[in-house]
UniProtKB/TrEMBL annotation:
It comes from Collimonas arenae. The lineage of its organism: Bacteria, Pseudomonadati, Pseudomonadota, Betaproteobacteria, Burkholderiales. It is a multi-pass membrane protein. InterPro entries: Poly_Biosynth_Transport. The chain crosses the membrane at residues 20-42, 54-74, 95-120, 140-158, 170-188, 194-215, 254-272, 278-297, 318-341, 353-374, 386-402. Keywords: Cell membrane, Membrane, Transmembrane, Transmembrane helix. This is Teichuronic acid biosynthesis protein TuaB. Pfam families: Polysacc_synt_3.
Amino acid sequence: MDLINSESNKKSYRTFIHNIGWNLVGQIAPLIAAVVSIPLLIKGLGVDRFGILTIAWMLIGYFSLFDLGIGRALTQIISEKLATNKGKDIPPLMWTGLTVMFVLGLIASLLIVGLSDWIIYSGLKIPVYLQDETKSSLSMLAPSIPLVLLATGLRGVLEAKHEFKSVNLVRIPLGVLMFVAPLCVLPFSNSLVAIFFSLLLVRAFTAIAFFFLCYRSMDNFTEFSLSRAVVPELLKFGGWMTVSNIVSPIMVQMDRFVIGMMLSMAAVAYYATPYEMVTKLLVIPAAIAGVCFPQFAKLNAQKNTKEAMTLYWKSCKYIFYLIFPAVIFVIFFAGWILHLWLGGKFSDESTRVFQILAIGVLANGLAAIPFAFLQGAGRSDITAKVHVCELFIYLPLLYFSVSKLGIVGASLIWSLRVFVDGIILHRMVGMVATKNIG
C-alpha cells in the first residue's frame, strides 16, 4: 500500500509533513528577512553597490555548486545505504566526500581570485569609483566558498538521516543573518569589504553548526576514514550532477551577467530585485522536494515504484495549490507591491518583469518534483542532458532578447525556458517509472 493511505505508514507520513513544515520555516524566515532588509540595503549602499552585492550572492550560489555533485550524491547514496541496512559503509563514503568537497572549495576560491580582474575591469560595467573596492571585496568573498561546500556536504548527510528539524534550526537564524549581518555593518560602514566580511562570518558559523549536528546525530561520525574505492560510487551519480551544477546556474543566473554587460548595474538591480522577490516563492517546492529526494532514493532502493509515484503526484498537487494563488496575486498587484516596497522608480522599471517572472516561477516550482524524482532514482544523467540541450538554445535567445527588449526580454526568455524544462522533466519521469515497473 502507498505511503499516504497505508495505515501502517501514517506515522511516516506525519513525519514527512513535519519535515516539509520545518523546511518551509527554514526557507521562509530568510525570505522575511530579505523583504525587510533589501530596501534598507539599497538605501544604505546605493543602487550600484547593491547591484554588486547581488552579483556576489550569485557567485556564492554558483560556486557552491562546484562540488562535482558530491553533496547531492551523499544524500542519495547514504539514503540507499540506510534503506538497505548497510550503515557500516557510510563513514568512508561520508569522509571521502566531505574531504573532496572542501578541496574543491579551495580550488574555486583560487578561481575567483584569479578571475577577479576580468570580472571587475572587463566582464561587468562596474563604475570606476567602485572597481578597487569591488576587487578587495572579492578577496573577502573567496574564502567563503570552501565553507559553503563543506556545509552543503554536511547538510546532505543530515538530510539523508531525515534530520530536517535540526538542519532548519541552524538554517533559520543563519539564513536570516545573511541579510541582517550586512545591515548591522551599515551604521559603521557602507564599504563592500566590510559587508562581504560579515557574510564570510555567517558562512563559517553555518559550517561549524552542521559539523556539530552530524557529530551528535551519527553514531559512527567519528570513524574517520578515506577510501579511493568509494570515489567512483560518488562520481557515478555526482559526475552527471556536476554537469547540471555547472549548466543550471548558468541558465538561472546568466541573465544578470548579460544585463550587466549589455546594460548597466542599475538595470541589474531593477531586474534582480523583483527576481529575488518572486523566486522566493520557490521555497515552497524546494521545501517539499528537499524532503522528497531522500524518500525517492529510499523507495527506489526498495524497488517500490508505486509508492514513489503516489508521493510524486501528491507533491506536485500540493505545490500547485500553494503557489498558484500567490502567482495570481503578484500578476494583478505587482506595481502596487513594488511601489509600496521600493518606491515609484522601481515600480516603473520592474513591474512588467515582476509579472512575467511570476508566471515562470509557477512552471519552475512544478519542475522541482520531477527533478527530485529522477535524481532520487539515480538518473542524474537525464537532468544533466536536458540542461545541456537547453543551454545552447537559451543563451543566444537571452542575448537577443536583452538587446531588443532589455530586462523585460530577459524575463520572457527565462520564463519560457523553465516552462519547457518542466514539461520535459515530467515526461522523463513517466518513462523512468514505466521502465522500473516493467
